[in-house]
Amino acid sequence: MPYSVDCAIYDPTLNQYHTNASVSISAAAGDPVQAAEKGTVKEITKDEEKGTSLVIEHENGWLTTYSQLPEDISVKVGEAVDKGQAIGTVGEPTKYTIALGSHVEFAVAKDGEPVDPAKAVQDE
Q1: pLDDT tens digit string along 42-70?
Q2: By the 8 A CB rule, do 27 and 68 touch?
Q3: Containing domain of residue 117, as a range?
Q4: Total structural domains within the chain
Q5: What is the pTM (predicted TM-score) of this model?
Q6: Where residue 32 sits, what CATH number does that domain have?
Q7: How far apart are CA 24 and CA 26, in angstroms?
């Protein structure tokens, strides 16, 4: 699903419209997921909607979040990671995103506010 925090977009799994503060990047289950930039693993959570999520804290108030990962990720909270380092793999989609197939949900925030990941990467 595309990033859209100002306008509701259609979610094919839930058959409803809502905003979306991340992008869904299609990939095969088991493909490696890499850190977008160097930083420190801030938290790892698991919930029914997003599966396992991993948050990396970067310099200057930036955070990146990677969701729809399986439980067996390869880093731990507090661990420093490098740009491009494998942090886990793509998991199977949860029942809330099954229509999208296997993918990673990638979100970026600056000082607690969502940022379009495409623009954040482009500005780098």
Answers
A1: 999 999 999 999 999 999 999 999 999 99
A2: no
A3: 24-123
A4: 1
A5: 0.90
A6: 2.70.70.10
A7: 6
